[in-house]
Amino acid sequence: MSNRPEPNPKHFYPYMLTMTTRWNDQDIYGHMNNMVYGEMFDTVVNRLLIEHGILDFTTSTHIGLVVASQYQFFEGANYPEELDVGVGIHHLGRTSVGYSFALFRPGKDLAAAQGSYTHVFVERQTHKPTALWPELRQLMREHWLRDGSMPPEP
Q1: Could you write out the three-class secondary structure of the chain?
Q2: Can you give the residue ranges of every domain in the chain?
Q3: How confident is the model over 110-142, as pLDDT tens digits?
Q4: What distance in Å separates the CA atoms of residue 35 and residue 4, rounded to the nearest whole number?
Q5: What is the CATH number of domain 16-142?
Q6: pLDDT digits (tens, 9 = 90+) for 44-83
Q7: Residue 80: is the preceding peptide bond cis (ω within 30°)?
Q8: How many Cα atoms within 13 Å fall on the side-chain side of residue 16?
Q9: Quick check: 104 and 147 in contact, CB under 8 A?
Q10: What whole-number distance in Å separates Cα of residue 56 and Cα of residue 62?
């Protein structure tokens, strides 16, 4: 019996971004380097926060720091491909948010790669944890992972 998770379907992820692979994303083995997957996952999370006015790289007084991450790979991606990268929220704590994300190859409904990470929100200047503010909590509830779980009450 394997503990390996199954790839998630695309409909689990309420926020989706299309990204194009680049020539230099490939490694010597002819597939997309593992670090590039992480960059794509980080990009989709930050775009969600930026587009909804939660994060501004130059002026935000609070920032999210990644304190834990993990990935699973099911199928390689290559250059050139347009990939759909999705994100949904699976945890909402007092100072932390858990993101689940996945990458989908063209025409595929099951993830080629998926993973998660946890942001702890901190004050930019001191890096001391800070409670999640109402606008952030609301955005996270609105983008809860569509896997049958329910977000916490406001």
Answers
A1: CCCCCCCCEHHHCCEEEEEECCHHHECCCCCECHHHHHHHHHHHHHHHHHHCCCCCCCCCCEEEEEEEEEEEECCCCCCCCEEEEEEEEEEECCCEEEEEEEEECCCCCECCEEEEEEEEEEECCCCCECCCCHHHHHHHHHCECCCCCCCCCC
A2: 16-142
A3: 999 999 999 999 999 999 999 999 999 999 999
A4: 21
A5: 3.10.129.10
A6: 999 999 999 999 999 999 999 999 999 999 999 999 999 9
A7: yes
A8: 16
A9: no
A10: 9
> Residue 31 carries which side chain, given as an amino acid letter?
H
- The amino acid at 66: V
What residue has token string 């930050």?
A: 46
Tokens of 75: 């199928």
Q: Which amino acid is at 153?
A: E
Question: In DSSP terms, which residues pair with 117 in a beta bridge?
Answer: 69, 99
Contact in structure between 139 and 55 (CB atoms under 8 Å): no
Backbone torsions φ then ψ of 7, nearest 5 degrees: -65, 140
Query: For the chain, what's the residue count?
Result: 154
Structure tokens at 107: 């025409």
